[in-house]
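Homework-ish question, so no full write-ups if that breaks the rules, but can someone show me the predicted structure for this set?
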Amino acid sequence: METNRNRHRFLLLPAALFLVLLAGIVAGAWYYYQLQETHFKAKVQDELSAIANLKMDQIAAWRNERLADAELLSKGGLLTSEMAPNEKIRDRFRRIGPLLAIYKKDFGYYSLMVTDIAGRVIEKIGDASHAPPYVDTAAILKVVSEKKTKIVDFYRCPACGRIHLDVLVPVFAGDTGSAVVGVAVLRRDPEQFLFPLIQTWPVPSRTSETLLFRQEGDSIAYLNELLYRKGAALKLRLPLKSKDLPAAQVARGKEGFLEGTDYRGVKVFAVGRHIPDSPWYIISKVDKEEVLAPLRAVGRTVLIVAGLFVAILCSLLVMLWLAYDRTMLLARHKEEIAREQAEEGLRESEEKFRNVFDNSSVGKSITSLEGQVNVNSAFCEMLGYTNEELAQQNWRNLSHPDDIALTQRNLDQVRSGEKKSARFITRYLKKDGSIVWADVGATLQKDKDGKPLYFITSAIDITERKRAEDAMQQAIGNVEASRRTLLSVVEDQKRTQDELRQSEEKFRNVFDNSSIAKSITALNGSMNVNQAFCDMLGYTKEELARRNWQAVSHPDDCELTQKNLDQLQSGEKKSSRFIKRYIKKDGSIVWADVGTTLQRDKNGSPLYFITSVIDITERKRAEGALQQSEAKYRNLFDNAQIGMFRTKMDGSAILEVNQNLLDVFGFTREEMLASPSTMRWAHPEEREEMARRLRADGVVTNLEVGFLTKAGETRNFLISVKPYIEQGILEGSGMDVTDRKKAEEALQESEKRLSEAQKMAQLGNWNWDIKTGNVEWSDEVYHIFQLDPKKFTPQIDSILEFSPWPEDHERDKELIRKAMESREKGNYEQRFLRPDKSIGYYQSTFQGKYDNEGNLVSIVGTILDITDRKRAEDKINLLNNELLQKNTELEQLIYVASHDLRSPLVNVQGFSKEMGLLANELVAITSQAGLPDRQKTRVSDIATKEFPEAQSYVSASVLKMDGLLKGLLKLSRLGRAALALQEIDMDEMVSGVLKTLEFQVQKCGARVETGSLPVCTGDPVQVNQVFTNLVDNAIKYLVPGRPGFIRITGKSENGISEYCVEDNGIGIAPEHQSRVFEIFHRLNPLASEGEGLGLTIAKKIVSRLGGSVRVESEIDKGSRFFVTLPGA
Amino acid sequence: MKKEVVILIAEDDDGHATLIEKNLRRAGLLNEIVRFRDGQESLDFLFEKGNGNKRERGTSYLLLLDIRMPKVDGVEVLRKIKADKELKKLPVIMITTTDDPREVELCFELGCSNYIAKPIEYEKFMEAIRQLGLFLLVVEVPVIDGGGKK
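A: Not a homework solution, just the prediction itself:
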């Protein structure tokens, strides 16, 4: 309520102000209108008064002149002074008749009469129609008795029906005042001078007129003819009492400016005057409607302006209202929010938050300080859980174990206030156990007191990105990894060798620290062993004494042992050394290095064998491990998908290669190892480069080199090499990158071709990566803008910056904006400034590229150099303008020339006619002069025959020349006339044309046939002219005496309508056919009339309408005129 | 009593001027006639400039105006007259050789009182001027007072 009252109070002031202003505007408009009306009225009053006064003066003067005339005639005038004593009036009248006739003519009387004192007409001059003549006898008797001149006012003559005004003059016998012998009646016809005088109006006006009237009893009688009612003079009578009638008002004595309703009942402004010394009044009047018409225009303007003011006021008020309303609403809204907050606390805002939270496409979680999560559906989707499954889960259970610490650290930082928000990348575990990489942002929500409430976390799934990154990483590191694998294998082998050395040392220790096992073995095989032997095999001396050597030897090695012993016995060898296995007492095997000699007696007969045995079990085991390791290495080595090799350091030999390399080179292993490694280098300088790097860095990584295959082909390898100085070898890996290289080269080649093609087409392309902001230009773009690609780095606005015209930028940017909005291809043409300040033009085409989600990723575009095209266009425009100007000049010339040429013709014609008049005068004079008859006849001949003949030639030539000039004027106007193009029904038009020419057709008796005609587009008036001219032409050139035939046909083809007007007339000779359309060309000037313009005009019209006209003709057979016009 | 209307003829062609004057006289017109040979002369007279003849204030004038004239053409003269506060009362009748509708329209737009195209055929010419003469006999012409300053 309070608010509402405030609102009303607030609006009271503007509303009051509005009403005051409204009243002000209305009053102002009314006042202005009134002012204008007064002004108009004053103007019309001035004008009418001036005219009425003028007319009044003229009429009064006229009336006075008439009376003065009469006095002149009467007193000392013709009639009285010429009177011989006692002469009868009739005789006198007859005697001075000729003089009276001149008098009548000079003073413009209708008739002159004389009556006797009884009013009988004695004699009259003029007015032959009046028989018997009418006179007002009563008035005459009055004149006789009063001896005074009297005017008989306007009356309608009962005899002839015309209006007369008579001046009656007494004729005295002698001096004035003596006996009256008769009365002269001077009769005037007011229609001859007075009425025209009254009726003319000096300024242009539609409804103005002047009325002459008199009072007759209690009515008004109009004396002159009225503008709006014919035959009203002296017939129309209106009551004197009419209140509104201006004439009545004047008659009642109200002179000057009046407003009223005239005899037609139309509202008028009028000025009335009484003609002094007469019963007449005049009224000059004009319709109110005419006078106030301009005022109404003013009124409309005032109304519109006032309306505009009111509209502005209203809209201001409404705007004020809305602004106020919004303020109030906002205030109220704030209040409500505050109240609800007070009532419902945080819940409301939490709910709002929940809304945003739940509907967000980004995974979000509210995480309690203890770690319980409360997540939205995007988060659930990301991890593949349902909402319920994740409710109250701890984030630690959802995170990858390795990342928990990282996450915890970030959360702690946020909680401690060290950071306001944290952003980090972590891994979550999906329900199915797979890993989700996420970009996580976390903030801490605190209550009013700054006490931490919970974390708000948003997580964006970047697994795909991560995967892509990893794949990339993997690809890049592929070679490096292989190299590392190889090196690790090498390390492995080295380690194995070390182990072997250690075990040998260990063995030697054992050997050194114990006595060597010895046995004296009899020829029958029984042994006599020492303690060391016993220890070796785990027997006691006693146990071994009962056994022969076969019993403790490995069964598989007995044969070997026997063979060695036999060789000693036979004397083949002096001593033998071999490796064999013994079986220990516990059954295990002991490897032993056995040396045996045969002891002979003096005669050389074998006595026994002395055998030393060294336990090499440990060594054997180490050797086994080595072999195993070597097999592992070999396996890796042979199966690696990357080439591996070992060579001598100096390149003199290849020591080892793997299968991959053999496959690539096409060698067998033997072939490969048969030649030195230097032979495989395609470019020896590359080997030197490798050596240089090895010396410098100790290692070579990913050096690209060329190797020769068995087939002699060079293949490109990426090699990594490590030297082993002590051994004098090199080990390394090599990857065949020939195909990749070829692909790269092919790519480069195609890029080069593209660049060349662009260069030829002067078309460059560019690409703007929105994300990175990188701008790439093809070479041709640099070329078009004449820039050096090495020195210039393009930015996105670079291209526009070459056009230093701000107005162009706005237009282009608008076009770009539109294209981006509509996601369509856009383009514009633009001029630009080259570094050398010359101006060029390009056409830019561009389009946005979008990812699957519709985000703008990049913009690609082309730049086409259109400078040459622009130049050509400019040149064409220039030529066109020149042509237009020339055409205009020509038309102007024709126009001026034909006008200026016509001017002298007026003089030629005029003065030749004037001379004719002078000649006539000459004849009149010579007829009175005393010339001999012969000369009189000659003068008469000259004046009546030769002069008119000469004149007729002059006149005919002048008219012909005028005709030609008019034709030229017509032609020049044709070029300027505006065209009103529309679809034309040609059947209708041609039948109209034929109707117009019906007379000519019938006159020559020709038969006319019309086919069905297609519609066309053109200016109907001008097309009509074309066909009128063609048909007229056909009629004109028919063969006299041969039945004429004219046919009009038409057809439509490819949107063009073609018509043919055909005749069987005289035809046109081939040599003349091209000239028939020339101006003033006429086939046979004597045989027909015309200006020679018909075909010229037809051709000009048709070509203006975008069509053409041509002729086919054969002499004496006829002609066919073809007209083409654009179809519908 | 007012002074008689003075007829002004602006016409560069002596022949035309003679023919016009002759036929006006024939129609019974006895008024004073003043002749100008070009537009500039007419303007100097009306706007009271230069060394030549100048108009008298308080006199009624009526101007017969040709269009194509040396120095200043008739259309320009008409334009200047109708742009002047006082002189615009002066009735101007165009008498010219051209009957180009554009020219006619332009002159009426500028405010000429009438437009007469001079016919080449003399009978028609005579008749046209006679009609003009009769018109001039009865027409009322306002007096031109001060003004005339541009």
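Now go work out the reasoning yourself. Hint: The mean pLDDT of chain B is 84.
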